């Protein structure tokens, strides 16, 4: 049984006979997309974990792409009716959009077991444990026999619009050069499954021999990595023309560690 942002008003805090609960089926997976409190935030979705596995994409409260201005939201690519519904209940309705995208992307929407969204964002729950991570949506039941805890909270990030799945990588860059400069470092990944755009790894003071780490959620499952593009730039024109390089770059995929 898949719960697509089960309702909060009149259901949260009620006995299990009244609402969706993991006792309702052999396997119950939940997608929480609008779990902010109904008062005062007008969240429509239930907040507590109520299934065998509970996914909280983007933290489960505010979905990317839902904060667009009302006019652009109502004049939606999918039509006026779809846009109007999104304007009224965008976060709530993301649950079924993620679910329908998950059918097309069997390897997408990996949910990382974690105590909180903040810890997930900081990279504390990366990579997936040895038994792997479940996929949010249509293929969540593949994880059915691996659930070990009473309840399991899973976190992930999604895109702002279709296609929604993102793939998480840990990128570690050690710089080489003669002296520190102010600027930023970008990295793009190339692989057998496709290429990514550039993602910022660090900004500020760049020191040679220092190591910088970032967790990036990219729009493509790059597969086996064949190449990494490293770019850096300083923030203003520097007449001494400083040079920086990458002594090493390490990329770790969340899925297969």
UniProtKB/TrEMBL annotation:
Native organism taxonomy: Eukaryota, Metazoa, Chordata, Craniata, Vertebrata
Name of the featured protein: Pancreatic lipase-related protein 2
UniProtKB keywords: Cell projection, Cytoplasmic vesicle, Disulfide bond, Hydrolase, Lipid degradation, Lipid metabolism, Secreted
Family indicated by similarity: Belongs to the AB hydrolase superfamily. Lipase family.
Query: What superkingdom does the record give?
Result: Eukaryota
Molecular function (GO) terms for this protein are: galactolipase activity; lipoprotein lipase activity
Write out the catalysed reaction: a 1,2-diacyl-sn-glycero-3-phosphocholine + H2O = a monoacyl-sn-glycero-3-phosphocholine + a fatty acid + H(+); di-(9Z)-octadecenoylglycerol + H2O = (9Z-octadecenoyl)-glycerol + (9Z)-octadecenoate + H(+); a 1,2-diacyl-3-O-[alpha-D-galactosyl-(1->6)-beta-D-galactosyl]-sn-glycerol + H2O = acyl-3-O-[alpha-D-galactosyl-(1->6)-beta-D-galactosyl]-sn-glycerol + a fatty acid + H(+); long chain 1,2-diacyl-3-O-beta-D-galactosyl-sn-glycerol + H2O = long chain acyl-3-O-beta-D-galactosyl-sn-glycerol + a fatty acid + H(+)
Q: How does it sit in the membrane?
A: Peripheral membrane protein
- Pathway assignment: Glycerolipid metabolism; triacylglycerol degradation; Glycolipid metabolism
Indicate the principal place this protein occupies in or around the cell: other
InterPro entries (alphabetical): AB_hydrolase_fold, Lipase, PLAT/LH2_dom, PLAT/LH2_dom_sf, TAG_lipase
User: Would you kindly state one Gene Ontology biological process term found in this protein's UniProt entry?
Assistant: lipid catabolic process
């Amino acid at each position: 049984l898949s719960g697509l942002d089960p309702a909060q008003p009149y259901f949260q805090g009620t006995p299990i006979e009244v609402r969706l609960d993991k006792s309702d089926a052999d396997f119950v997976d939940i997608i929480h997309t609008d779990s902010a409190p109904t008062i005062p935030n007008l969240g429509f979705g239930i907040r507590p974990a109520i299934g065998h596995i509970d996914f909280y994409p983007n933290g489960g409260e505010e979905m990317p792409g839902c904060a667009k201005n009302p006019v652009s939201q109502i004049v939606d690519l999918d039509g006026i009716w779809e846009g109007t519904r999104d304007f009224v209940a965008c976060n709530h309705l993301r649950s079924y959009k993620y679910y329908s995208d998950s059918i097309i992307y069997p390897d997408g929407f990996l949910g990382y077991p974690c105590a909180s969204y903040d810890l997930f964002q900081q990279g504390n729950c990366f990579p997936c444990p040895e038994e792997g991570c479940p996929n949010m949506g249509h293929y969540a039941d593949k994880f059915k026999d691996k659930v070990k805890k009473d309840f399991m909270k899973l976190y992930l990030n999604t895109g702002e619009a279709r296609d929604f799945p993102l793939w998480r990588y840990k990128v570690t860059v050690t710089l080489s050069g003669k002296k520190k400069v102010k600027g930023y470092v970008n990295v793009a990944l190339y692989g057998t499954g496709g290429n990514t755009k550039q993602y910022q790894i660090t900004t500020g003071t760049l020191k040679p021999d220092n190591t910088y780490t970032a967790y990036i959620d990219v729009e493509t499952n790059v597969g086996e990595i064949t190449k990494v593009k490293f770019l850096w730039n300083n923030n203003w024109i520097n007449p001494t023309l400083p040079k920086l390089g990458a002594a090493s770059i390490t990329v770790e995929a969340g899925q297969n560690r």
